[in-house]
Amino acid sequence: MSNRLIVITGPTGSGKSALAMRMAEQYGCDIISADSRQMFREIPIGTAAPTADDLARVTHHFIGNLSLGDYYSAAQYEEEVMRLLPSLWRKSPVQIMCGGSMMYIDAVTRGIDQLPTISDDIRRHAWEIYEKGGLQQLRLTLLELDPLYYREVDLNNHKRLVHAIEICLQAGVPYSSLRTGRVKPRDFDIEMLAIDMPRDILFDRINRRVNAMIDSGLVDEARAVSHLRHLNSLNTVGYKELWPYIDGLTTLDEAITKIARNTRVYAKKQLTWLKSRPHRLIMSNEQ
What we know:
Number of helices: 11
CATH architecture of the largest domain: 3-Layer(aba) Sandwich
Order of helices and strands: EHEHEHEHHHHEHHHHE
Helix content: 40-55%
Number of domains: 3
Shape: globular
Structural class: alpha/beta
Radius of gyration: 19 Å
Strand order of the largest sheet: 3-2-4-1-5-6
């Protein structure tokens, strides 16, 4: 039997984790998390990280393995997963990967180009461009460094812009010249399953999950790390909307509304990404 990696993905709030748990117990295998935020140990509520009971039921990897100030990349994730898999195959020829971080899933299933390791000085400089000049200055900088990539990148995604600038500065060549787009061969089979459901049901699930996170203590969790809000790891949905509330500039209801809205926007981006990837849909009408 060939080794097989089953990737369970779908939009946020669709029930990926519950399905992965059931399948992992069925196959007697582990779960490799493909959620770039669940790696940060300080923010389990806002990232919907597996509970202690979940971790006791099934062994998970890449959960709570980083601190908020740690640097991590999709390239590191690819390297570490590929190094981990041989030991997991000895446990079961089927392993489960679960999550919705698109770059992380692509890193393992398609591979990513070899890019230079970014020095602390370059990373600090690239983020200072954003902090001092905002999106407009990022765009102007990238246009100068790599006009080809500038024409195709999402100019409203500051993380993508910073990442491209980092690589241009570190490598001394345009980022676009290092992108091959070639899919790396893997010595195991890959099956991608994506949960789908009517959009109104998905959005209702998202809204209810946001409220459940608030009830579970999301505000206190955000307040505990608010002094670190300058870190990229906290420039994410669920936290950035709470900073104005914590600072007394808005109401909690307004913050909750923005969290739910931005989470729905992110879910739409995940669905758009899925359309360009081969996968098998698992239809769900769960309420």
